[in-house]
Each structure stands twice: as structure tokens, then as C-alpha cells.
Amino acid sequence: MTTPGNSAPPATGQIWNTEAYAANGRFVATLATDVVALLAPQPGEHILDLGCGDGALTEQLAATGAIVTGVDASPSMLAAARERNLHSTTSFALDHHDATALPYNQQFDAVFSNAALHWINGASGHQAMLSCVHRALRSENPQARFVAEMGGQGNVAAIRTALQAVLAPFHIDAEATAASFFPSPALYRRLLESAGFTIQSIELIPRPTPLSNGMESWLNTFRNGVLDRLNPHDRAVALANTIALLEPTLRDADGNWIADYVRLRFHATLR
Q1: What does the pLDDT read at residue 230?
Q2: Which domain range does residue 265 map to?
Q3: Number of domains the chain contains
Q4: Residue 217 in domain
Q5: Residue 15: pLDDT over 90
Q6: Ordered DSSP codes for the chain
Q7: 3 in a domain, yes or no?
Q8: Residue 58 counted as domain residue
Q9: 119-172 pLDDT, tens per residue?
Q10: At 250, which CATH number?
């Protein structure tokens, strides 16, 4: 049995494997059409892509003629984004910063984020991030806006519940270790308003999401920060037990896996 005393993986959070993400997480960018439409990027606008990951959406935003800067806290993701930028027909800048400690001041017409903010732990982390975003936006621009989509209340609830149950005998609190934050619209409205934003829209969107490579690949990609706390044998056992728990609810009669995603999407402007 692996205990939390093991050296190697960090106590909390996610570790990104860019190859696994490219193979198993491309749907994240593919399903961002609606939130990009809500952003409505314009040629010449300065846009910050917060939590840009491997740059797939950053590249798409730059192709609209916007002047885009991608920022991420993961060195491996930024390396993948720089490689993409090197071979892209459009160009964009890339910075390495934590979302809770952004250095920007009155530099952007819009801040955009897709499927990244839920990796910031807790309300206090979000308060710090929102303060940074507010400061980064150009107050003299009446169109300055923060448009984002993230995991919301109930996101991957079945998966999280199964992991919590399976990892309890290994003395691992899967929820605390994953350190994800999936707020309700009411909670996030309060956080945005307290940071000086006016809410134009905010909604919770159920989005059952097909997993073309199956549940095991999803778990190894999006919960490896939790699973890496186990030795190889225990990890294999935990994966098998989690999958067995999830099969009755998330796998259909044809063997297709559907993850129980719920997204929180919002559009906020400076007050």
C-alpha cells in the first residue's frame, strides 16, 4: 500500500504529461467553440489566454487577428505551446506565470480562459487570480472583458466519487489531492463581483463528453497527480476498481464511455 509519506509526487495538484494530453484531452479545445464565440475576439485586440496549456486555442485566437499572449504555470505545457508556435502560420507570445501572481497591468482588452481555472485551488486562490485579471484589463476600454469556461458544480462527480472510494483504503484523499475547484454560479458570481467585475452572463452547462480513448486514459491524463501517489501495482488495482465502479453509469451498451462533465461559463466586464 502506498501512503502519503512517499517522496516523488507533490502533495496536491495535477502533473501534466503533454503527450497524454494531446492524445486524450484534445476534446477540451475542440469543445470550446461556444466560449470562443462569447469572447468574440477582434483583429488588433490584445488578449490574454490564461492557462493556455499546449497552445491549441491560443493559436486559434491568434488566427482571428488578435494579438494574443498565452500564459501557463506548467513548464511542460508551455514547451508544447512554444513548439506549436514555432510551426504555426500565426504567432503569439508565451509567458510562464502562476495565475495567482500575474504581472500584467492595464495591458489587455480581454482575458480568456478555457478548462483551466478549476485547477486553481480554493476560493482564496481564485480571489488572488481575479484580482490579477482585473488589474491586467485596460480600464479605459469599455469593451474590456473576462470570458471563461471551467469545471462547475457537479463536474465529473461520478468519477470523483469513485476515486474517493477506491483510494480511501490507500489513505489518500482523492479530492484534497486533486485540489480542483468546481464552484456554483452563485459562488462564482460573488467572487467576480467582490473582485470588481460586473456579470454579463454566468451559467452552469451539463456537457456529457464522449471519451474516445476510454476511462483509463482519462484517469491517467486528468488524475495522474492523484494516481502517481501509488506504486505501480496499487495504481493498476486502483484504476481497475475505479473503472469497475463507473461502468454501470458512464459506459453504454456499446462500450462507449461518457464523462459527466459540467461547465461553468461566464462573461464579466469591469465595473
Answers
A1: 97
A2: 18-270
A3: 1
A4: yes
A5: no
A6: ---TT-SSS-SSS----HHHHHHH-THHHHTTHHHHHHH---TT-EEEEET-TTSHHHHHHHTTT-EEEEEES-HHHHHHHHHHHHH-SS--EEEE--GGG----S-BSEEEEES-GGGS-HHHHHHHHHHHHHHHB-TT-TT-EEEEEEE-TTTTHHHHHHHHHHHGGGT--HHHHHT-----HHHHHHHHHHTTEEEEEEEEEEEEEEETTHHHHHHHHHSHHHHTTS-HHHHHHHHHHHHHHHHHHHB-TTS-EEEEEEEEEEEEEE-
A7: no
A8: yes
A9: 999 999 999 999 999 999 999 999 999 999 999 999 999 999 999 999 999 999
A10: 3.40.50.150
Q: Angle CA(186)–CA(138)–CA(29) in degrees, nearest 5?
A: 60
Residue with cell 512554444: 82
What are the grid coordinates assigned to 35, written together? 466560449
Does residue 206 lie in a domain region? yes
